[in-house]
Write a structure and sequence with these properties.
Layout lengths: L4 E6 L2 E7 L13 E5 L21 E8 L2 E3 L4 E3 L3 E3 L6 E11 L2 E10 L2 E16 L2 E12 L5 E4 L13 E5 L8 E3 L6 H4 L6 E5 L3 E7 L2 H5 L2 E4 L5 E4 L7 E3 L4 E12 L4 H13 L1
Antiparallel strand pairs: 1-2, 2-3, 4-5, 4-12, 4-13, 6-7, 8-9, 9-10, 10-11, 11-20, 12-19, 13-18, 14-15, 15-16, 16-20, 17-18
Length: 280
């Protein structure tokens, strides 16, 4: 049904489908997502519910711990116990569009768990052409605590699992025969880049490159979560070293701009495209 999805287009060319009301089991933490996202030449650069992680849903916002509720999907990491199956999954509910154009939208979402609303989100997404072989996905989300008291966002890392600070903006990339390369302006390799802060980070597959950039000062303070060997995925960590508190009525805002390019590009090209994308 058309109201359940929309297509992002650049000059009439489809580059991403946004699913607003996915029919998913509760244990996957149902939420809107972008999939497939493609390069301008049509190469898919996302995956949906892959065998290795059924709760990875293309591009979106996923948080494993909002005041103990799982908005990531799958098992919950419990301190001194490890990954545990819990009946604690939340869901992000599409509440409506404030704006909807071929090249972007503004959406309101309700983060629901245990029968109540924890967060209200405003999500702004825009697609912009950069060159004849690259475009940018500009993704901003603002989370407002709509409860009567303070709440906080955590991750497996803040709950006792080192190196697992996932939660926030997350992009599940396509899995290929060989793991993608990953690099920043001065480092490369999963072990080096994971958990580090960098203005931008590139993930390069067989014939595509994704360049992720924090587009606000606050977003750039969040370290990157990177996987290439186990599976290809990149996220921006909301709760890396400690839980992120949100007082009642307060709002947390993050903006990530992702360059989606055909071919494998080098550091110089990545930096130039990021500059153009963030300043466009």
């Amino acid at each position: 049904m058309m109201y359940d999805s929309l297509v992002l287009r650049i000059a009439g060319r489809p580059v991403g489908r946004y699913i607003t009301r996915p029919e998913l089991p509760p244990k996957l933490s149902p939420r809107p997502y972008l999939h497939p996202v493609t390069t301008l030449a049509g190469t898919a650069v996302t995956e949906l519910s892959p065998v290795d992680h059924a709760h990875h849903l293309g591009v979106g916002v996923a948080v494993p711990d909002v005041e103990g509720h799982n908005f990531w999907g799958g098992r919950t990491y419990v301190r001194d116990q490890g990954p545990t199956e819990l009946d604690n999954h939340g869901a992000q509910r599409h509440a409506g569009f404030q704006l909807k154009d071929p090249d972007g939208f503004v959406e309101e979402l309700r983060w629901m768990a245990a029968g109540g609303e924890l967060l209200r989100e405003r999500r702004t997404v825009a697609a912009t052409e950069l060159t004849d072989s690259a475009w940018a996905l500009d993704f901003t989300f603002s989370l407002t605590n709509t409860t009567d008291g303070p709440l906080s966002i955590g991750s497996p890392a803040t709950n006792g699992r080192p190196g697992a600070a996932y939660g926030g903006f997350f992009w599940r990339a396509r899995k290929e025969a060989e793991a993608p390369a990953v690099f920043t302006h001065d480092t490369e390799g999963e072990e080096t880049v994971h958990g580090e802060r960098a203005d931008w980070l590139a993930l390069a597959g067989a014939n595509w490159t994704l360049v992720f950039a924090g587009a606000t000062e606050q977003t750039r303070r969040d370290p990157w979560f990177v996987r290439t060997a186990e599976y290809p995925g990149v996220g921006s960590s909301l709760a890396h070293d400690e839980r992120l508190p949100i007082a009642a009525g307060d709002t947390v805002v993050r903006r990530i701009v992702t360059v989606v390019a055909d071919g494998r590009i080098d550091r110089g090209e990545a930096a130039a495209l990021v500059r153009k994308a963030v300043n466009t």
